Amino acid sequence: MYNTRPKKNRMLELFYRAMCGESISVKKVAEEYGVSTKSVSRDISEIKNFLSENRDLVGNTELKYDSTSKSYYLELDCFLLDKEIFAIVKMMIGCRAFNKTEIINLITKLKQFTSPKDRRVLENFIRKEVYHYNEVHHDCESVIDNLWKLIRCINEKKEITISYYKMSRELVERKLIPVAITFSDYYFYLIAFKTDDEKKHAVYFRVDRIINIVEHRKHYELNEVYNFDEGALRERIQFMFPGSNRKIRFEFTGPSVQAILDKIPTAKVVDKNGKTTIIEAETFGTGVNMFLLSQGSHVKALAPQEFVDEMREEIEKMIEFYK
């Protein structure tokens, strides 16, 4: 039975189907609508002309031909290439910050921004990654929900009270002034000030350990001196261990100096003698000690003396385990 829909309606339907990610085969469409392949080809030409002549409305949207499938597909500016989506998904899976339901939901939505041509290839690449995905342990129901609540409170400058599991697994409540969110080594962190702390010492809370957030009507105002630069913090802090700013110096004799420079963004090579490299870095807190200790005998602390003592004491404690 021949399709009696007018040509204009047919063109709109073809365009809509392409917008929904469907590949348009001239032969199949001709059979479906009961028209000649020439008629469908003319429809496609008119759609292409419309897209070309109305860049102000549709941007760089194009109807392109795939010779492999012998069909047309719509490519929009907002489409991500398979290589771009693959890189993003790899990072999301590698960070392990979301539970499996959240990661599958995010990937499913991201796939809608790829071109139909690339979607199947992408799915083949990530299927095994998703199947073997293991998130880090979460106390909260949803990291994403917690993040959004906290971001809103920071934006609206609202004080909050959180119910939080400490590292010791003690459940506590803290009334806070939330100021920033950052990410480090598998976890999102809330950076905040305690409301009763006049000196405004920054404290860090793992977002996945926050099981409840109460938003208060009270809004806060902070002096500019307390404006928090999470970008600068990320350069200087390792493993989100609190402490103070300091410049450290150490020897490194390991095989990859670049690995050290990548892990500590502020690190700089100040001297080199054979296999020994002298490195200086601006750091915050003592988390960097954990990283440097993981390098074993390839690292020797040089300055300041406080840093040298911390490293020596930790090594001596480790030695005691093997006596």
- In whole angstroms, the N-to-C terminal distance is 90 Å
Shape, per Cα inertia axes: elongated
User: Which series of helices and strands comes N to C?
Assistant: HHHHEEHHHHEEEEEHEHEEHEH
Q: Which range does the strand content fall in?
A: 25-35%
- DSSP helical segment count: 12
Number of strand elements: 11
Poorly predicted segments: none
Describe the main β-sheet briefly: 5 strands, antiparallel
The order of strands across the largest sheet is 6-5-4-3-7
Helical content, roughly?
40-55%
User: What structural category arises from helix and sheet content?
Assistant: alpha+beta
Mean pLDDT: 84
- Provide the gyration radius in Å: 28 Å
Description:
The chain is α+β, with helices and mostly antiparallel strands. It is 42% helix and 25% strand. It is built from twelve helices and eleven strands. The strands form three sheets. The chain has a five-stranded antiparallel sheet with strand order 6-5-4-3-7. Strands 9-10-8-11 form a four-stranded antiparallel sheet. The chain has a two-stranded antiparallel sheet with strand order 1-2. Strand 1 and strand 2 (71-75) form a beta hairpin. The protein is elongated, with a radius of gyration of 28 Å. The relative contact order is 0.07. The mean pLDDT is 84.
